[in-house]
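If it is no trouble, can you show me the amino acids of a protein and the tokens describing how it folds?
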Amino acid sequence: MSNVDREAVPSRCGGRGFVVAEPVRELLSPRRVKLGESTEVRRLLPNLGRRMVGAWCFVDHYGPDDITDEPGMQVPPHPHMGLQTVSWLHDGEVLHRDSTGSLRTIGPRELGLMTSGRAISHSEESPRSHARYLHGAQLWVALPDTDRHTAPHFEHHAELPRITAPGLSATLILGALDGATSPGTTYTPIVGADLTLADSADVRLPLEPDFEYAVLSMSGEAHVDGVPVLPGSMLYLGCGRTELPLRAESNASVMLLGGEPFEEELVMWWNFVARSHEEIEEARTAWTTGTRFGEVKGYDGAPLPAPELPPVALKPRGRVR
């Protein structure tokens, strides 16, 4: 997934100085962003007041959109470095192509996981013959310094672990939860799970007290630790929790995102996660000159041009502004 803003805003994030070390209930509102030709997303991370949750550094929620007579998602080839992208759908399909030669259609509740490592480019589009509705989330995970120059690769996992309890059905996307472990490759202690709550559900989900957490609402109205969370909004929960109370008066679905607070300070600009302004500048030049990021073959259209860099040097700093 790309950040297609033509005036990309740098985000300085990472570092443990601003991690909330105790349970909190901080409701984050989205910023609406146009993605490609016909898809609008609600951007939850980076947010004005909260930059990361564990290693999760970018969260977009979109749909459900009726794309019967629309092209749906159409994101031209664009570059990534220093991160992993996570494609997660509730409805519809996304056709993924990348510069390593991967070509895969990702369906609902299947994990599309792309590790950019040192450099990759990819495109994302709704197939020409597609389902009526498109609904999902696109997320990024920052790679630690020890792994951010690894070779790029793509994983597709159609079968993922499931966790069930009265009123709860969960699909584990990444990491570990309640004794289950996802097959997706991770580089820091992290968790991502899709939680479906039945009508009148009232459950408690076990958590790791050393992790920080947030819950993204996908559909319906869920009460997360007593706070109503509506679709397209996210509740930041801080650290220090051993369990999370969840309640729904009607069917609802949320995503649990969490992980060990990310210690390193980062610079995130456009589709790059780096450690300095110089790295960002070099990556932009490489994409503009057609080097380093490879070629996405088979996409019918031109690559996405890079926006202009801001006039001041980008500097890494803490997790909030």
